[in-house]
Amino acid sequence: MSLDETRTDDPSWPGAPGAAAWLNPPVQVERTGDGLVVTAAEGSDFWRTTAYGFTHDSGHALLAPFAEGTAVEVTFVLDYGEQFDQAGVLVRQDERTWTKAGVEVSDGEPQVGAVVTREHSDWSVGPVPDWAGREVTVRASRSGDALTVRARAAGSPWRLVRVSPLDPGADLLAGPFCCAPTRAGLRVRFTRVATTTADASLHAG
């Protein structure tokens, strides 16, 4: 099976939502007992212009249609640790309109955050050193004019990462992504991808 034909309803992806296709196929994809191990290309990234002056649209993402009223959850093992290593969820309209959210290594420690891109990228992060070595789940929820992103490490409560505006009528794709902007050999072990119902509220209770 070619990378472009990889299906997220493969038994190694519990609860996955159906066929998906790679945006920028990675160096290697290995099926394991509990998911996929994805090897990222050196220099792979998603970013547009802001602060750095460059545009990269070369990150690896396994994307499927992302319907209104649904949420995509991606779980991976946070066992990487070099500068700008990253994994999580990508929500994409086109090369100028997208959001990536997950855990990225910056300034020597893992940071949970998001990059929201509308022609130009912004970036927000918060340190999560206690998440290192654990399974992390990132949840992107589509409801009306908003994309709500939450994340948690295994055994921890959900943490709100970002709320950003969304075109309610846009055709969107979403799924797991990883990037290795500064090095070769990044391997990310994804253990779960699933589609569920969108969050009912921004706030608990």
From TrEMBL:
Domain of life: Bacteria
Biased composition (Low complexity): 13-22
Region (Disordered): 1-22
Pfam families: DUF1349 (PF07081)
Biased composition (Basic and acidic residues): 1-10
InterPro entries tied to this protein: ConA-like_dom_sf, DUF1349
Protein name per the record: DUF1349 domain-containing protein
Annotated organism of origin: Cellulomonas aerilata
